[in-house]
Write a structure and sequence with these properties.
The chain is about 30% helix and about 25% strand. It is α/β, with parallel strands linked by helices and about 450 residues long. It is globular and about 65 Å long. The N and C termini lie far apart (about 65 Å).
Amino acid sequence: MRDLIVIGGGPGGYVAALRAAQLGMQVTLVEKDNLGGTCLNRGCVPTKAYYQSAQLLRSLGQMTEFGISVAGSNFDLQTTWARKERIVRQLVEGISGLLVANRVEVITGEASLSSPQQVRVGDQLIDAKRILIATGSSCSQLPIPGADLPCVVNSDQLLAQTTLPDRLVIIGGGVIGLEFASIFQAFGSQVTVLEYMPDLLSGVDKEISKRLRVFLKRQGIEIFTGARVERIEGNGNQVTVWASTAKDTISAEADTVLIATGRRPYTANLNLGAVGVATTPQGFIVTNGDFQTTVPSIYAIGDVIGGAMLAHVASEEGRVAVERMVGHDSKVAYHAIPAVIFTTPEVATVGLSEEGAKEQGIDYRVGKLQFAANSKAITMGETEGLVKVLTTTEGTVIGAHIIGPHAADLIAAATLAVKERLTAEQITTTIHAHPTLSEAWLEALLDTEKRAINLMPKRGAQ
């Protein structure tokens, strides 16, 4: 009998398997598709490969400002697609090598639960002391007329295409929708975004989401919020998407329609009910603080249990789950989960937004620095955006929100501050190198105490 069977080889599952092996467990990992899960094969990594191509295309448009002349450049999606595929294969092989090196048995096939300590994969029955479910999520479907037309795709299918749509309509103004909007606009598509909610990026600090909307519109992306999609009508090789707003009915023509309205837990064929594993009405697996399900020997992590459906959260839950199995007092710092959105400009956030702080009745201070006041950003020619920090009135950092150059990298320092509940004074008395983008973080913290150096003075400065 094995110590642990992990079902699902995505960022939650393979990390859990590797950590369990490090802790001395005999581990089997079952994956029905490619190792790495959605994130590596059809999500985070492929889109970032495309994002890099998009950023290079935008840089080409700025070359003359830097004294560089570029002639004869053109974009080819097939080449970009092939590069993306090579990157994915390389990383999948890397995970496979890590599992082999750590003596994790990998079985390819679809798993189902036969009992609280037994998993079936095809004709094979595998026994284990514990089972960890890390099956992730799948693209949500939109129940509207016309959603089954051939040119209506989800994010997995769009990443598989090798021809560039002239007109792309994206239904959904969340993370997935806006990342694809930025990428395909840079590639040359005419992009329209239809979002049901009144704001883009529901849950993100509203000041940040409003600024992003302005920047995206400047790039030529057409955006409609408060738009309820009613139907999609086909007409030869093109379709028309019809939506209603509070004011009127709108339509958008497209060659391709991307449905990016979120994800749902993937539990197909797991046989959860037969062994007594409870789920919520939305289909998420119910777990306790140890990530145990209603069956004590069966655990679950990642997208399949809900919460912040992010790859790095799944990885952290996988690590913590197996460490708690052997008696470690490990915990997930849910109050300090960073989220990154690879639009242009990038958006990154951690901790409480202003809206969240108000909902919790927290008295807070806000500090900001525009990248237009940061010397490194100016030299880069990337001055759009700002760093925004929230602290308590005592100075403890409770949230940070960045829109601008390299926001995805800058958020790490803010995440540490929120996790460890550092104060503005502890950080501002730490020397930050010059000239760097990190100085914008420093100045925003100083601004919470009205002490920013590179801002015009405010009343009450001391």
